[in-house]
Design goal:
Elements lengths: L1 H10 L18 E3 L14 H7 L2 H10 L7 E3 L1 H29 L12 H22 L3 H22 L1 H7 L1 H21 L5 H10 L37 H21 L8
Parallel strand pairs: 1-2
Helix pairs in contact: 2-10, 3-4, 4-6, 4-8, 5-6, 5-8, 6-8, 7-8, 8-9
Length: about 280
């Protein structure tokens, strides 16, 4: 191998040399309920079984959120339950509240902006920087941190909504309430792009609700800004992005799936050495 590299570099007339790996992504081990994965012992969940239990994006989110980047981690059903709550109560809640309010109070059109107060400016600053920050983190192969930063951003969106309380503000000043949801709509767009590397199916659904008719792969971090969605842009009525799952029921279903597969294996006719 070293000889091949030397020959490759010596053969280059333009002086360009082979670019060697400069940052190699690796992980530690993933366990299952603090035990090693073992198909023979029935320890773990396999992808075909997993997809019968929950949608793909739920598994993608959970595995990346707890990715063993610097130390061994373990898949725990209790953590899976907590991560489903994050999807529903943090990400899904912010997006659904924001878009539903725009549909009901502003005829589905992005409202106009007025003058910003300090709370507005603080959240707008986070919208402006989040794409670059998450992108750089991913470039360093820190997938776990990047996803947790996206979740943190969604939490900040919920805090912003609660601090501004536009459901009260609209009773005195509809335009002021509209500005809040203009800003929230920009944050929802940001989340659609930010979630792309982690939960692409969810990202595409968000873009559809936002009526953004561009392929997710065409939209990069640079498309995230405080002006991603223009005033009067028409959005669609959203459906809840996620659903709550009972992990006890999932475990029972997993045991049923394994039982059925075991029965099928036992039913197979075995061939003897004499045959």
């Amino acid at each position: 191998f070293p000889g091949i590299l030397m020959a490759y570099n010596d053969d280059k007339q333009d002086g360009q040399k082979l670019v060697l790996p400069y940052n190699v992504s690796s992980t530690e081990f993933l366990m299952y309920e603090n035990d090693k994965f073992s198909k023979s012992r029935g320890v773990g969940i396999w992808i075909d079984d997993a997809l019968e239990l929950a949608p793909l994006d739920y598994w993608r989110f959970n595995l990346i959120y707890n990715r063993p980047e610097k130390a061994d981690t373990s898949f725990l059903w209790s953590e899976f339950d907590n991560n489903i709550k994050i999807l529903n109560d943090v990400i899904g809640n912010f997006i659904h509240r924001s878009l539903t309010f725009i549909i009901k109070q502003f005829n589905g059109k992005i409202p106009k902006k007025l003058e910003f107060d300090d709370i507005d400016k603080d959240f707008l600053s986070k919208i402006s920087s989040i794409g670059k920050d998450v992108g750089e983190t991913l470039e360093n192969f820190e997938l776990r941190k990047a996803l947790r930063d996206v979740v943190k951003f969604a939490r900040e969106g919920n805090v912003y909504l609660n601090d501004k309380a536009p459901w009260h503000l609209i009773k005195q000043n509809k335009d002021a309430a509209g500005q809040v949801f203009n800003i929230c709509a920009q944050a929802v767009y940001a989340l659609a792009i930010l979630l792309g590397p982690f939960t692409p199916g969810t990202s595409e659904r968000i873009l559809n609700y936002l009526n953004v008719r561009r392929d997710l792969n065409e939209l990069g971090w640079n498309s995230i800004s405080t002006e991603s969605l223009v005033v009067d842009h028409k959005i669609k009525k959203p459906e809840p992005l996620f659903q709550k799952l009972e992990t006890n029921e999932l475990q029972d279903k997993l045991n049923q799936i394994r039982g059925i597969k075991k029965e099928k294996i036992e039913e197979k006719e075995m061939i003897t050495y004499e045959d």
